[in-house]
């Protein structure tokens, strides 16, 4: 359950052009004073189009690979709370160029942000959006809580784990820090490079007659934990509004229930308007797949009372309807 407590002071959100932030900002606006000059930070080129931001938020641009730009941003805004969502968050894309861009954004950008906060906003609370991918091969041992060892297996996860360590080392005792290790989360507006929108987009294109009735998939036997993006936002806002009473720095944000990817696809196919054949595509098989991801969110639940409020069926139906709307809105359709 989401705390309805107010969040006092000025808020800065990085990654404002991303999927999660687009869901977060309208919800966040209900917890803050609109007169304080909150900041939604987009990439260096700014938003793709004129952003529709909630009252009290202004759009700013910043290259998170440019330490000087980050310093100037924090000096100008002087936030009381920072929600650091900006990241290169695709596991598949993290292998490109030897992982250099992933490390530059996820680690170097986070380190520069931490330094700028210490210089210009040393009382700010930082919520860092990390990932349960940091556990990696440790999932072979079974269900994991925050005390488990980590063994990340890809550049995305390794860069996030290194950023966690850096933040804990440099901010310890100096600036309030919350590390939210987020499970897979999805919803309307997520890129089709992620698994559920990928399935849904193929279904929508097949229904529209744009592709033959064959859906290409990777490893369907893997078991993963999924949340609706709005449940993740509930957790983030709950952690922030209770930051002064939290007993720990690191929290798993997950449903606690692994589900086979095959079962999720079957639920989506049951919603399809026509029969569809499923065919494995070797190009979609990801290296270092962990068979089962079993995450214990007990610390978050026990300390805050948060629990997921949306079902998997709600999540899947929403993702499919979103992809249908996108396909229907394409020129020539």
From TrEMBL:
It holds the Pfam family GDP_Man_Dehyd. It comes from the Bacteria. Coiled coil: none annotated. InterPro entries: NAD(P)-bd_dom, NAD(P)-bd_dom_sf. PANTHER family: DTDP-D-GLUCOSE 4,6-DEHYDRATASE-RELATED (PTHR43000). This is NAD-dependent epimerase/dehydratase family protein. It comes from Pannonibacter tanglangensis.
